[in-house]
Amino acid sequence: MNKRNPAAHRFIESFSYDIRLAPYDIQGSIAHAVMLGRQRIIPATASRKIVAGLKRILDDLQRGWKVPMEEDIHFAIERELIRRTGDAGRMLHTGRSRNDQVVTDLYLYLKDHIDLIVAEIARVQESLVSVSERHQDSVMPGFTHLQHAQPILLAHHLLAYAWMLERDKARFLGARLRADVLPLGSAALGGTSFPIDRRFVAKALGFKSISENSIDATASRDVLAEFLSACSILMSNLSRISEEIVIWSSAEFSFIELTEEFTSGSSIMPQKRNPDVAEIVRGETGRVYGSLVAVLTILKGLPLGYNRDLQEDKPPLFDAVDTVMGCLAVMAPMLNSIRVNTDSMRQWCKKGFLAATELADFLAEKGVPFRAAHGIVATIVAYCQKRGLSLEQISLEDLKVFHPKFSREAIGLLTPEKVVRAKTSYGGTSPASVRRQIAKLRRLIKATTRAD
Description:
The structure is a single chain. The protein is mainly alpha-helical. The protein is 64% helix and 6% strand. The protein contains 20 helices and eight strands. The chain has helices spanning 6-12, 15-18, 22-38, 44-62, 73-85, 87-90, 98-134, 154-179, 198-205, 214-219, 222-248, 276-299, 314-337, 342-348, 356-365, 370-387, 396-402, 408-411, 416-422, 431-451; strands spanning 139-144, 147-153, 181-182, 209-210, 256-257, 264-265, 273-274, 339-340. The strands form four sheets. It has a two-stranded antiparallel ribbon with strand order 1-2. It has a two-stranded parallel ribbon with strand order 3-4. The radius of gyration is 30 Å and the shape is elongated.
């Protein structure tokens, strides 16, 4: 019998973290045992005994019983099954390897958790849409380079994040498609000589197809890398939302207020309420990026087929799932709770000459080449800056000095509300566009909910 150094045994064990895969390991083993019996690879009585034993182990786990520790969860469950069923349990591993077993567990785990993540993303989208519905007419300054650019509707700004999250859902669902391929039956790397029925197992476990190449099936983790990439991009988007919450809730902006549920006080300054939840979401993003980089680094230069390095894919996976689920769980209620300061946003629209583009567009519509119109309005802005005026305060007489084609109609374009109403192109910030976006997003969110 192999006598392993105790330190080496502790070093290579994975039970301490892959215990999470226990339900999926049992699920896969039940399907495999049923197939072995159907194919008469093992006696039908042994197959039934194995299935009954595995179901009892699963029931015990769900009641809080702890499976005795082994090198990994696969050995632990098999050892417990043998303890309970004797020689029947020793037949379970016929026609398979831990190499195809572990990646099957992994794919079952990924499919379940992708479904959970997509449902949580839809909840965040629902919050963004709900806040947008409540503030369809609220104007705010839009920014490029964090400089005042043009007036927009708050709803339009928030819905931009809802559309980002829609793409996030698509990325996760794309990864789910790649995980919906059964690896079990690939054995260690070259398949098996037993007359197994992989299609039966795929159907029993809910996989859409079976893997085409046994080496690829056991040695590849690109699906995991794709999943972690989707997690990282999602966290990037959540971090951007969080950054805006932090900025907008500052005294300098005062666009929004966060409720006490999602802030904390200062240890020394009694007047302060800090946007800690948003800041932690922003900070957790780096942690998920780290999980992706860890897995990519494990895979880099790894020869085919299976290598024990792949055992190290699970800690970053589980950490990323926990982090993403935790961040999504707080984002939806935090967004729903924000109080919008519409007066402050409207006042900010008076700064930065946000209607300048409208004046240039007005001249262009009157036949002035746009580049010439752009230069004329730049001169008008310089004139206003010198005199401490906003564009709304400039008189028609002053405008006509700069170009005779300016008329009273141009003066009427200069309020933020008029500017946003004029942006009627598809996907723009006009109220009609915002209403259309809200309706479409509601249909997409409903479709996600139905799919769950």
